[in-house]
Amino acid sequence: MLHKNLKPFPQTFLWGASTSAYQVEGANLIDGKGPSCQDVKQVPEGTSDLTVCADHYHRYKEDIALMAEMGFKAYRFSISWSRILPEGTGDVNPKGIEFYNNLINECLSHNIQPIITMFHFDMPAKLDERGSWSNRESVDWFVNFARILFENYGDRVKYWLTINEQNVLTLSGPVIGTLHIPEGCTNELKEIYQQNHHMLVAQAKAMALCHELLPDAKIGPAPNISLVYPASCKPEDVQAAQNFNALRNWLYLDMSVYGVYNNLVWAYLEEHDACPEFMPGDEEALKSGHPDFIGFNYYNTATVAASDGTEISDVHADQQNAQGIAGLYRAFRNPNLPKTEFGWEIDPMGFRATIREMYSRYRLPMIVTENGLGAYDKLTEDGKVHDSYRIKYLRDHIEQVQLAITDGCEMLGYCPWSALDLISTHEGMVKRYGFIYVDRDEFDLKTLDRYRKDSFYWYKKVIASNGSDL
Ligand code: BGP
């Protein structure tokens, strides 16, 4: 739809950016923090471990000051579960509570709203040993952790996100080092969707608890949503796109918003004898969640064709590159879209399409919790990073958010990935996303000094003009 007049971004729009604890903090085994599954996993060859990351744990004041200089209204970060509860349950680590108190207070002192992700790919190692999400007790573990967060930080934190990219955990967990398949498992699909079910119940209970304890706070999920296009107008391809849309996207949002399983996904699971088992009370718990908004990560769309029956579902596909599932869909390279240096398609118009589709399905306000471009940035000798490619990516995407607002979709905020450079989920330090350059290499920690990239100055201008000067 062509609009003659664009609607402005709301005055209260939450401009900001995102990080996650295990990728940015470092200090992964100090001040009482227990290891998480990320700390004990096999680090991909050639990439750094997580002992230092961007050293945000020690440099958060400097980082928040830089965010304030850009004019941030919000900072989305995650809380490391094993920093708060070194064993995942049991004793609370006072130093962990203190660190996030300081971080939250530092944000607030600069008028930056903290948006807290409660779980971002970092199950405490002790709970990992006990089966992680495959263990039914994981529901109680998570709700207990949520309660501790609400009780300690709920007086100041107004925006909460439950589980980051639950759909990615379920569809390609091994790539990010998080999905457990217990030895001797005979039906892997059932096992995966049972774990998914535990996360869904845990999330719904945490949302209900948030509403009970913090009536003024807002909480929502944070899946990775990519609208799926059909490779052609062949009816078979359109159906394949519906299949993958259901499996990748709508399963998660239908459940968080309406508390019901998407029927296409359920039918697929039935076919494979893989439906999750419900415990007494699950059905009611799932219906009791009710998010106040939808947080979602968007990097690009997906395109699929009809399955020819030979696809092998590949759990090693990454977040944005699915392979296909026999009988459901086959991955298709969209010839209309360019790719990043790391092979992810770039589709700004698909962002608007994704937002429109979500709004028509769920009618809830939305916060973009991730969006961004991973690239090999170069620090020049005079301390600059000329990341015009990132500015272009972000500008093109913000334009589409404004178009979606003009279409009538309710948008609360935009927090791209990432506030500062940090360790990628599986590509190490070389894949950078930040507005702030962090001076370190994969293994050489160098100075860890911060540098303002060109995108830093550009984003500052965007925020100062409330999105009117792109
Ligand atoms: C999302 C994750 C983030 C992040 C981002 C970029 O899936 O929520 O944690 O890292 O993708 O991914 P990558 O680091 O693999 O490029």
Briefly summarize what is shown.
By secondary structure, this protein is α/β, with parallel strands linked by helices. The protein contains 15 helices and 14 strands.
CATH architecture, please? Answer: Alpha-Beta Barrel
Number of domains: 1
Which overall shape is indicated by the principal axes computed on the Cα atoms?
A: globular
Q: Order of SSEs, N→C? A: EHHHEHHEHHEHHEEHHHEEEEHEHEEEH
Distance between the termini: 21 Å
Strand content: 5-15%
How is this structure best described in words?
It is a single chain. Helix 3 packs parallel to helix 5 and helix 8 packs antiparallel against helix 9. Strand 9 and strand 10 form a beta hairpin. The chain is built from 15 helices and 14 strands. By secondary structure, the chain is an alpha/beta fold. It has a single domain, classed as TIM Barrel, CATH 3.20.20. The chain is globular. About 40% of the residues lie in helices and about 15% in strands. Bound molecules: 6-O-phosphono-beta-D-galactopyranose (BGP). The site of 6-O-phosphono-beta-D-galactopyranose has 16 residues, from loops. InterPro entries: GH (IPR017853), GH_1_N_CS (IPR033132), Glyco_hydro_1 (IPR001360), Glyco_hydro_1_AS (IPR018120). Belongs to the glycosyl hydrolase 1 family.
Which descriptors would you attach to this protein?
470 residues; alpha/beta; TIM Barrel; eight-stranded parallel sheet; four-stranded mixed sheet; 13% strand; globular; binds 6-O-phosphono-beta-D-galactopyranose
